[in-house]
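Bench notes, bay 3.
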Amino acid sequence: MALSATLFRFEIGISDVDRGVYESLALRVAQHPSETDLYLVTRVLARVLEHRDGLAFGKGLSDPDAAPISALRDAGIIALWVDIGHPKPERLHKASKRADEVCVYTHRAPASLLADLASAKIHRADEIRVVALEPDFIADLAERLSRINRWDMLRSDGVLYVTVDDETLTTTPLIHEGRAALE
């Protein structure tokens, strides 16, 4: 018998001073049995930090060619493709051909991913944004993960603060953008 997905609920207050986004989100996130808590937390953070109209989680493993998170614009064109972890260069090549903007959120050291972007044949590789979240920060959030979660997130001057159960965790995501990140 196959294992089924686990459903997590998130109530997240967003105060993103850097982007001028102030909202409350109610998310239901299915975790596939093969998905780690670290990946799940990174996926949720990416969804919140990229929040905009029309942004949604993908179908997961039921459609492996789709983005984990994406936003569409007119006529079903992909405006934003968000990938998680360390996607293969071939996947990023296809994504950058299909989407106006591509970014990757990783909870691992980004050096190998950046090396792939610099050396592999990837369409518009110099335009792919890589957001590296500190592994210890992600691990701390994963330890606090429950089936029902209430987070308050503040981003100001590039620093991210996430409050869970009256405890605030802090990190500064490293953002690698464009050609400068690849050199």
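Next record in the batch:
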Amino acid sequence: MSQGTTTATAPSGTRPLRADAARNRQRLLDVAADAFAEHGTEASLEDIARTAGVGVGTLYRHFPTRAALIEAVYRAGADELCASADVLAAQYPPREALDEWVLGFVGYVGRKRGMASALKAAIGPESAAVFAEARAKFDEMTGKLVAAAQADGSIRPDVEPPDIMRAVSGVCMAQAEAQDPDRARRVVRLLLDGLRYQPEE
């Protein structure tokens, strides 16, 4: 599953952004996501602004602090991944759509290197709500894809979506410590193969 472009919107409770401001915000989010994935969340904000083609003052108008930018990138990445579920469901048979979604989640976790820890350190207890919101969205999208695959009989009927996400998250965490993302994908593929096993009645 290829990584798409995130969609920038005005923060909740504010007026909609002008078209040019919205484009600037979107560009900053895209560049920051790449910079954080490559260099970690301590990537230079000045470099991010320069690569996005805006002044650093524009960056700070949209994201007053590094923590605000990290949170926005985290939320945008989660929203992008969730939006991909419906796209995959329209493009692939149910079982393949589920496989692609879960493997996309593995890639998402890899791209968010250190972001969750940095966000937790930056905003403290408030980060729990951000993470809980993302997990709820992931479980909802996984649930839709699992239900479709169970409905056509391509995966076993006793699979529960939260179990899939917990198992995959555990694999990702273990392989992140080993710095072996390719192995994470191989192990997750084995888990996905196990979903197709049909227990005897």
